[in-house]
Amino acid sequence: MKTKYISLAAFLILCVGGGSFIGTQNLPGDWYDGLTKPFFNPPAWLFGPVWTVLYAMIAVAGWRTWMRDANGLLMKIWFAQLALNFTWSPVFFTYHWMLFAALIIILMIALTVYFITRIWNKDRLASWLMVPYLGWISFAFLLNISLWWLNFA
Questions:
Q1: Residue 23 neighbours by CB distance under 10 Å
Q2: pLDDT for 33
Q3: Closest by CA position to 141, among listed 112, 114, 109, 113
Q4: 29, 32, 71, 100: least buried by Cβ within 10 Å?
Q5: Quick check: 82 and 58 in contact, CB under 8 A?
Q6: What whole-number distance in Å separates Cα of residue 150 and Cα of residue 35?
Q7: pLDDT, tens digit, for every residue of 87-133?
Q8: What is the pLDDT of residue 3?
Q9: In terms of one coarse class, where is the protein primarily found (predicted)?
């Protein structure tokens, strides 16, 4: 039982801590502030709280999957989407590679849809926990591509 909660804590640290660390190392900065934004661009203060909640939900979904089958395909898919997630911020905010960042999001969406649909019959809670994330990264794709279009197309 103790190992179960230690592994949950590890997933929370990985997702929430890792996401927070990546975010603090790849801040939007002057470059982003200078971009023309679409009318639906959320206020800057919203991103931190939203990502914190989403990362906690992603962590629990990953942990539940880990407890079921630590070496299975779905766990590999979960880790792959998280790696892409952590890659997006430096690609977009640090290197300013907007189209490459959009491609990363497309891959994140594909992996997340695959994860959600494949785990549905095994663990509905893990599946549902990833749905808000899918919605947010889909919105992020729209925002990412709109920023590119308004500023560089």
A1: 18
A2: 95
A3: 109
A4: 71
A5: yes
A6: 8
A7: 999 999 999 999 999 999 999 999 999 999 999 999 999 999 999 99
A8: 85
A9: membrane
Residue with tokens 């926990």: 129
User: Tokens 């679409």 sit at which residue?
Assistant: 38
Q: What is the pLDDT of residues 6-29, one digit of tens each?
A: 999 999 999 999 999 999 999 999
Q: Which of 27, 19, 107 is nearest to 56 (CA)?
A: 19
Integer Cα distance of 28 and 43 in angstroms: 13
Residues 6+ apart with CB under 8 A from 145: 102
Residue 1: count other Cβ atoms within 10 Å of its Cβ: 5
- Number of domain units in the chain: 1
Specify the pLDDT at position 153.
84
The DSSP secondary structure of 113-124, one letter per residue, reads HHHHHHHTTT-H
Contact of 134 with 113, CB cutoff 8 Å: yes
